[in-house]
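Kindly draft a sequence, keeping tokens residue-aligned:
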Amino acid sequence: MNHWLTAPILLPLLGGILQIFMSFAPLGLRRTLALATTTLILVVAIGLVMLADDGSYRIYAFGNWAPPFGIVLVLDRLSALMVFITALLAFFCHIYSTRGTDAMGRHFHALFLFQLMGLNIAFLTGDLFNLFVAFEVLLIASYGLLMHGGGSVRSVPGLHYVVLNLIGSSLFLIGVGMLYSVTGTLNMADLALAVREVTPEDLPLVKAAGMILLVMFGLKAAILPLCFWLPQAYAAATAPVAALFAVMTKVGVYAILRVYTLIFGSEGGPVADLGMDWLFPLSLLTLAMGVIGAVGADGLRKLVAWQVIISVGTLLAAFSLSTAPATSAALFYLIHTTWITAGLFLVADLIARQRGTAEDRIVTAPRMRSRTLLSILFLLGTTAAAGLPPLSGFFAKVLILESVETGTAMAWVWGVIIVGSFLTVVAYSRAGSIVFWRNVEGHVKDPGRLTLPVTVSTAALIGMSVAIVALAGPISEYTDKTAQQLHTPSMYIEILQTPMVGEEVSQ
């Protein structure tokens, strides 16, 4: 067993509890401790990526109970990658929040850290029920973060978010209960074996459970038609929260990738490739819906929120092809789109703060104080998001297009992605030309100045579009090996044979 697997969960848990007890302490002290906790999580996440890079599976069994009877955490390349993506994103979002977002409520840092804990549990758990628990933990924290700062502007979309996710949680419990009633286990590795031996009488129940879980994960990922809550909710959230939420939809994407390669994957016997024939067209429709929303967006935050939906459609279209090259390309795209979309939320906030009452609306307004720097950040971020060369989005989309095998699927994927990218360029060009070039006479009474923390954190996330290109070789090598690992479920199932501590001693 490897105890380091618990660190990404225990660090934010202890940090969050400490923040609750210190809620009346000076803001500077709470801020310092919270940032120190986020930094430690990032250091641990880097260590886990290095640990997982050898291709081995590592587990941590709580109470030394062997799987499938106990609760286990499982570290492989995918879980390590997701923990690292989240940790790096959270580090910069947390820095950005020190501009004043964290001063709007005493429990901001506690909620932020509890959200990280829920995300890390979701990525590391090897059990479907604990995946449900992780969803609840991160969702409870996200409810608070979404409505942080108060006001009806955030309360109404926040209420929609709460209601939809409660429905999703109910579906999750129903699906998990149906699976357990047939197989008697919720350990993912054990389930992968159990569904292969399901009797013909129980097969419809297992298939129904699998489809219910797919709908629920689709709700979390914001796939069409379960995506319309997202633009309003994300646009209403504070900037660092919206930026952190860039990874929230990826939790649903991760769950689909994990469950539908391991349990319902190509080696799933009678339930092999369950739901993939539905997922592919829905993914392309989601991508198309995101593009339509982006073209019609009337504000920068909503424009970026629709970009989140575009990225979900692109990711799931590639994953639904169920091939290792497509999965590898999608993982490369996932790294790019999570960080760049988050950076664009921060850029939109910086722009809004310098435009007075016009805020982030795509209308003419007085010239901004820091127009040059903001326009460069906006140009880099939107160029990468739209998939134009030479930034990371271009290479990510090229990898996805190259991974599609010749046939009908190729025509659909190429057509939707290329046309969608073109229209996304149009949407960003329209927004940029109005916001930066079409200025009116006048001045903003109190234009927000760019401070060092917000400038560095925003530039760092946008700068990832260059860093990913510079490190494209090692990143591609990692995603290739991750995809191979995912499409070889027998390797994951071997964790059932992992000896516990006493057994190791006896050997």
Q: What stands out?
A: The chain has a mean pLDDT of 89. The beta strands are 58-61, 72-75, 365-366, 439-440. The chain is about 70% helix and 0% strand. The CA atoms of residues 258 and 479 lie 15 Å apart.
